[in-house]
Amino acid sequence: MCSLAFARSLGFALIPLATCCIVANILLFFPDGKISFAQNDHVTMYVWYFMGIGGGGLVMLIPACVFLGMGKCVDSCGTDSCAMCGSVFAALVGLAGSAYCFLISAVALLKGPYCKNGGEWMYPFMDDGGSYLFAREKWSKCVQPAHIVEWNVTLLSILLGLSTLEFLLCFLQLISGLVNAVCRPCCYKQEYSLNT
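Predicted structure:
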């Protein structure tokens, strides 16, 4: 039963993380707080991959709901082994979603923002391998949108951090579910042999 309580606590923790991922991804569409950049397709192409809305957000609600509903599954099945199997599959879905969010956010961070530089829209930091992150003097290359480098770096770093936490929580539940599936039958056999 403690494994069920642990899974439920992980489910509760995943909901705010998923919500924050969705919000961070949505904010990437509105640099400088303006909708016109998204309308004119002047945002980085990676926001259209929906790494925070999909991978770190909506997909993550699947394991969150499964982890939270494990008690009901035990009530209907009579055992918690089927609930643990379901939680393992849900954890795998969560691992995939958080990994997708992390990878796309990391690539977008390395490539840099899409901005106006010298009269044309481009990725001015695309070929510097992410070294622009540690050289603030280069950030002035992006004239428009205002403060786009800070905007992208902050929100993509938030997505990286949130997806890492989501990955760790799903990994913990995966390990917990597997250990429970392997050890629980052994415990039942020992109890049975002691009683007989």
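Summary: The beta strands are 115-117, 120-122.
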